[in-house]
Amino acid sequence: MGKPKRERSLADNEARAVTRSLRVSPQKLNLVAALIRGKKVDVALADLAFSKKRIAVDVKKTLESAIANAENNHDLDVDSLVVKEAYVGKALVMKRFSPRARGRVGAIQKPFSNLTIVVREVEETA
Fold this sequence. Notes:
The protein has three helices and three strands. By secondary structure, it is of the alpha+beta class. The chain has one domain: CATH 3.90.470.10. A three-stranded antiparallel sheet has the order 1-3-2, covered by helices on one side. α2 (41-49) packs antiparallel against α3 (56-72). The longest helix is centred in the middle third of the chain and has 17 residues, at 56-72.
């Protein structure tokens, strides 16, 4: 019984990993995501390892998760994977207030982001 299995939204040669509620603004996270878009996964991992951005550590974790999903869940070859998509979405925004001069208040916004990475297996053309 139960409901029928949902169709896969990705192709058979693709795998995905999603990280939700990263404590960084979407604009800053998109700078790091743009660094790896369209690259082979080994090059992308090297770029993230040597990036000076703090959030690059979390992006690297998400990319490694996508690679592991491709290998273990979909039986794809790790050596021929390419980052097809790396996109960023907005999550919640915590609103805080800081006291300012003359009884006024300064609003502080602490944004969160969602990160989705899709890897695709490409056939090698020699």
